[in-house]
Amino acid sequence: NAGVTQTPKFQVLKTGQSMTLQCAQDMNHNSMYWYRQDPGMGLRLIYYSASEGTTDKGEVPNGYNVSRLNKREFSLRLESAAPSQTSVYFCASSPEGRGRPDTQYFGPGTRLTVL
Amino acid sequence: AQSVTQLDSHVSVSEGTPVLLRCNYSSSYSPSLFWYVQHPNKGLQLLLKYTSAATLVKGINGFEAEFKKSETSFHLTKPSAHMSDAAEYFCVVRPMNRDDKIIFGKGTRLHILP
Question: Which of A40, B29, B93, B106 could pair with B97 in a Cys bridge, judged by C-beta atoms 3.0 to 4.6 Å apart?
Fold first, then answer.
């Protein structure tokens, strides 16, 4: 039981390049989330998915797209990376769906640097 | 709209002394409240959660928090700090109203002095 896994662990991009961050969970959770963490800012929600086939914007969605590929997988895409997207990205999952907010389980993070 | 304020960005305590990490929130609807811990270069792990049951919530590793609606607070405490408690702690507000988003506090870094 791996929990929430993220790939890659580290990535360096040049401005304008694109990439996809992968996230998978094996806990049969309904909800999945993408956050970014910047020093002194806490975690900010980029996008979330309450169930397979649905996605919603969070606090800071600009410059990102997501795909809930199936119940297990939730990917985050940067179409044209910018230095402001340098951050640590965390994926999380939660059993709740549209129900009462529940515990989130976090992946180990992806450290992204955009030059 | 809701918000969460962690009143201290850094807290230093000596090993064996009590820990108090402060969190105040505002929410239009009855929220669920969480504390998460993040050790260096790791993901976040749940410490405890309040979801409208008992107002005093016990979590892992000896931590507990008390929900005080009148003070809109959810402070995290531990009677005796251990070196392994050195980490960053996040207070999180999750409203029942799905139009409001999950809000993380900016974090409190806990330093344990030997």
Answer: B29
| Residue range A5-59, pLDDT digits in tens | 999 999 999 999 999 999 999 999 999 999 999 988 889 999 999 888 899 999 8
Please tell me whether the peptide bond between A8 and the residue prior to it is cis, using omega within 30 degrees of 0.
yes
Print the SS3 string covering chain A: CCCEEEECCEEEECCCCCEEEEEEECCCCCEEEEEEEECCCEEEEEEEECCCCCCEECCCCCCCEEEECCCCEEEEEECCCCHHHCEEEEEEEECCCCCCCCCCEECCCEEEEEC
CA distance B60 to A6: 25
Residue A73: exposed, middle, or buried by beta-carbon count in 10 A (0-12, 13-18, 19+)? middle
Joined tokens for residue A90: 């965390």
Contacts of residue A103, defined as CB under 8 A and 6 or more positions apart, other chains included, come to A94, A95, B34, B46, B49
Residue-wise pLDDT tens digits, B68-94: 988 999 999 999 999 999 999 999 998
Using the Cβ of A39 and the Cβ atoms of chain B, whether some distance falls under 8 Å is answered with no
Q: Does A61 touch chain B (CB under 8 A)?
A: no
Q: What are the CA-CA distances from residue A69 to residues A27, B1, B112, B113 (Å)? A: 16, 31, 43, 47
Helix, strand or coil for residue B89?
strand
Name the pairing type of β-strands A19-25 and A42-49. Answer: unpaired
Quick check: B5 contacting A, CB < 8 Å? Answer: no
CA–CA separation, B17 and B97 (whole Å): 39
Q: Please, which residues have CB within 8 angstroms of residue B53's CB and are 6 or more apart in sequence? A: none
